[in-house]
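Record type: monomer structure entry
Structure origin: computed from sequence
Chain ID: A
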Amino acid sequence: MTALFALATSLLWGLADFGGGLLTRRIPALTVVVVSQLLAVVVLGGIVLATGAWTEAGPQLWYAVGAGVVGPAAMLAFYKALALGPMGVVSPLGSLGVVVPVSVGLLVGDRPGLVQFAGIGVAILGVVLAGGPELRGAPVQRQAVLLTLVAAFGFGSVMALIAEASTTVTGLFLALFVQRVTNVLVGGGALYASVKRGGLALPEGGPQVIRAALPALAFVGLADVAANGTYAIAAQQGPVTVAAVLASLYPVVTSLAAYGVLKERLRAVQAAGAGLALVGTVLLATG
């Protein structure tokens, strides 16, 4: 069951990342975050009411609040990085967020082994190659690599927090609802501040562009919610390392979607760097 739910997490996160990356190429990233999460709040609110999940409220929900604070910042950084592209480099670097749950394990008494030290080295090498200079053509923008690493840390923190936010399925519904409400509040505040500074909340073409994109925005929000839920179940059902490794495979889904839909092609050094980052992630989680 752990493997099944963790692989479902990879699929859902991969598709959500691909959809979010496409949307931010024509809609401001903060608007994508806020609208997609608001749609998820509406759906989750109905589920919480239907299942009576509110009766399981308790102090553990503060973990969900923490995940909700960190999540929008991570999603914003990641969507901006995806907009700078290419997805086939950005998405694998984002998988380095698995370092956070592994680090949590180290803080509570685990000791790093040789495999984990190797994973750190491989991951760093992957980051350098994926964002490094090319002999021909333009390199991946350094801003994209930096934003991706910030997002990775945020995603890893969300993984660690949401896994602690509930112990039952109905409690998980409530935790995800609280997380998404916090997402909307934090993201909405950031969007308001951005507009006050002269930023844009609407894309070129106005509100009708957002209305036309509502199905895609809903998919992104709900897929991200479902991925958080399946990961929490996977982490509770079996070893966290197994859940983290399999869930961290989501960049493969994003890369395949970018290859199939956008016909993206990676330069050799970029592909090698992205692959090494993914290998380093697996080594870190399994060490």
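Annotation 1: The chain is about 80% helix and 0% strand.
Annotation 2: The first helix runs from residue 2 to 23.
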